[in-house]
Design brief:
It is built from three helices and three strands. By secondary structure, the chain is of the alpha/beta class. Strands 2-1-3 form a three-stranded parallel beta sheet. The chain starts with a strand and ends in a 6-residue tail after the last strand. The chain is globular, with a radius of gyration of 12 Å.
């Protein structure tokens, strides 16, 4: 199964969802992207700290949603209906 999480800037919500799911289901392929994301931005410091508090390391570089990613995914989960 390949899951893609989508949010706005791909620096907070979708990277956190990606990291959380990877920690729970390590055999599932998971990626995240943003509809208005710049390439190669770090995750927000608050997201990094929140996940560290749960013992999850977030090493993330943002990426925009592209057709290639959408075709890669079996399931696309958006953080809001607006992202859908």
């Amino acid at each position: 199964m390949k899951i893609l999480f989508v949010c706005t800037g791909n620096t907070c919500r979708s990277p956190m969802a990606e990291a959380l799911l990877k920690s729970k289901l390590p055999d599932v392929e998971v990626k995240s992207a943003g509809i208005f994301a710049a390439k190669n931005q770090r995750a927000s410091q608050n997201a990094i700290v929140a996940l560290e508090n749960k013992g999850i390391i977030l090493n993330h570089q943002s990426q925009p949603v592209e057709e290639k990613l959408l075709n890669w995914a079996d399931v696309v989960l958006t953080m809001t209906t607006g992202h859908k």
